[in-house]
């Protein structure tokens, strides 16, 4: 398939989105891309792979259909199926919606200017599905990509007759709009993706479930690069949702407040994955270093069809969003909102005239609420005061058709804020570790023998906690005489500098002269006395 830009399109003030559709084993055989003109009265949109052009007017949407054999990635390996949309104006594209009846998912790609070179994967799959990781080349030239499989990766991949497993690295090169997809029955969470230039990264599962076996569903979402991670998140729960958290640095302290209870963790970079059930209406997360949070939503039915999205950190909240519902088949759509308490009621009133009730997020000053999106057209929601955040999710009958983050109405995310975030993360220093700390209001190092990496953590009894502490004491106790500190007490540090050698030599001469003179005097007196006795 060839990709090129239509002639005559002025993109100097526009946006460019590069994305792909990962493998989907659910039905039907098509993918849908939903776009909306959010900022300008009229916006031109070009699909690079087809050269089609569209004029989209404010608050009017267009739904473009890609047939699956042409647009969807299949199996493990490289393909030429990257897709690109180029627009005039500022972020007129709200979301690309992948809808396969109730077994689809929504995802929102980042504009190319927000893409990055360092990513850490979070995703979910079970025994009957494949976890999926896909990378798309962006620049007009070669991009070298490295995939680092952590020491806890439980899968084995066979690529070009070579086997890859835990601790291995996979290298490949992508050119513009080339894709490379990896499939594995093992979870990709903790896998590191590094590239020489910006790439688009997409994660998910071809079909998976949480809970009842009837709940097979497709997951897909754009993976935020490390430059878009943050230290503070507020999530709105739909009920029995799942949250995953991964860190960018070792010894990261993570505090999670939910149901008026705070749980503390200490996790290491990339490989320590926290996974918890959301039992309350909100989930407040703060950390000492930037973290990535994944929110896996589930339907309130025995089928529990899941949906995946990555909520933005508080530092990237906006004061205005474009909220675009899916086609009428997928309804009702609902919006989860996170805002300062004084702003929330006014924001919610832009969705509904009904009285609303919200839930305070402990002592953070934030509150959360879920409202129904009654409008079939695009809604532009604003806050007159503080920035706010949120997500949208839609149903088909009683099942979740998809969820994704809200997209800012205008680009008011200051580049300086993103730059400051990226300078504190040191992404190239990500290491692979296997220790995880997780005890209510306590910090203990938890070995892999007592913590399931991908299972919700449970409360421990006093006896169990005492046994774990004793185990830690046994493992951490060392012989005093075997420590390097003890051995260093008996060895002088070597210093080869000429100045140090000169000072040392001078000191030795000085001490030799002092003690030598004392000895010489004593020897002289001894000889004199002995000579005197001999004469007598």
What can you see in these coordinates?
With 536 residues, this protein is mostly beta strands. It folds into 2 domains: 415 residues, no CATH class; 59 residues, no CATH class. Helix content is 15%, strand content 38%. The strands form 8 sheets. Strands 6, 10, 11, 12, 15, 16, 17 and 18 form an 8-stranded antiparallel beta sheet that branches. A hairpin with a 5-residue loop joins strand 28 and strand 29. The protein is elongated.
**Anisotropy-based shape:** elongated
**Count of distinct structural domains:** 2
Estimate the helix proportion, in percent.
10-25%
**Helix/strand/pairing category:** mainly beta
Q: What is the radius of gyration? A: 31 Å
SS strand fraction:
35-45%
Quote the average pLDDT. 75
Distance between the ends: 122 Å
Q: Strand tally, please? A: 34
Q: Helix tally?
A: 6
State the low-pLDDT regions, or none. Answer: 1-12, 96-100, 411-458
Question: What kind of sheet is the major sheet?
Answer: 8 strands, antiparallel
């Amino acid at each position: 398939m060839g990709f090129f830009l239509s002639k005559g399109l002025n993109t100097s003030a526009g946006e460019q989105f590069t994305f792909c559709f990962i493998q989907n084993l659910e039905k039907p055989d098509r993918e849908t891309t939903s776009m909306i003109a959010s900022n300008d009265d009229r916006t031109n949109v070009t699909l690079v792979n087809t050269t089609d052009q569209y004029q989209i007017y404010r608050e009017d949407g267009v739904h473009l259909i890609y047939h699956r054999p042409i647009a969807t990635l299949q199996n493990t390996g490289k393909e030429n199926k990257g897709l690109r949309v180029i627009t005039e104006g500022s972020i007129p594209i709200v979301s690309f919606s992948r809808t396969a009846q109730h077994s689809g998912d929504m995802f929102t790609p980042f504009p190319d200017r927000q893409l990055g070179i360092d990513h850490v994967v979070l995703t979910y799959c079970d025994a009957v599905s494949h976890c999926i990781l896909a990378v798309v080349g962006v620049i007009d030239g070669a991009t070298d990509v490295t995939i680092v499989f952590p020491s806890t990766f439980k899968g084995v991949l066979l690529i070009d007759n070579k086997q890859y497993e835990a601790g291995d690295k996979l290298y490949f090169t992508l050119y513009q709009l080339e894709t490379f997809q990896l499939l594995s029955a093992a979870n990709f969470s903790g896998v590191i993706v590094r590239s020489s230039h910006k790439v688009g990264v997409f994660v998910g599962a071809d079909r998976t479930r949480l809970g009842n076996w009837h709940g097979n569903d497709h997951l897909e979402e754009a993976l935020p690069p490390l430059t878009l991670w943050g230290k503070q998140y507020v999530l709105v729960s739909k009920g029995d949702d799942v949250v995953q958290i991964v860190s960018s640095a070792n010894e990261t302290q993570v505090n999670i407040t939910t149901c008026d209870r705070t749980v503390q963790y200490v996790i290491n970079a990339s490989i320590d994955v926290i996974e918890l059930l959301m039992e309350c209406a909100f989930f407040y997360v703060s950390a000492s270093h930037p973290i990535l949070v994944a929110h896996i939503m589930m339907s309130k039915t025995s089928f529990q069809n899941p949906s995946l999205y990555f909520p933005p950190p508080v530092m990237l909240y906006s004061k205005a969003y474009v909220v675009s519902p899916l086609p009428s088949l997928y309804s009702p759509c609902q919006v989860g909102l996170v805002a300062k308490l004084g702003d929330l009621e006014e924001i919610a009133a832009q969705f509904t005239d009904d009285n609303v009730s919200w839930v305070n997020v402990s002592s953070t000053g934030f509150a959360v609420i879920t409202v129904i999106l009654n409008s079939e057209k695009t809604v532009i929601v604003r806050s007159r005061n503080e920035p706010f955040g949120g997500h949208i999710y839609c149903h088909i009958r009683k099942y979740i058709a998809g969820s994704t983050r809200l997209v800012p109405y205008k680009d008011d995310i200051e580049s300086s804020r993103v730059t400051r975030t990226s300078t504190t993360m040191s992404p190239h220093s990500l290491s692979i570790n296997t220790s995880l700390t997780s005890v209510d209001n306590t910090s203990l190092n938890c070995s892999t023998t007592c913590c399931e990496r991908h299972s919700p953590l449970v409360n421990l009894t006093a006896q169990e906690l005492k046994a774990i502490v004793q185990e830690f004491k046994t493992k951490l106790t060392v012989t005093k005489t075997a420590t390097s500190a003890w051995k260093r007490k008996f060895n002088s540090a070597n210093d080869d500098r000429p100045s140090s050698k000169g000072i040392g030599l001078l000191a030795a001469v000085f001490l030799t002269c002092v003690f030598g003179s004392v000895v010489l005097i004593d020897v002289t007196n001894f000889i004199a006395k002995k000579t005197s006795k001999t004469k007598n």
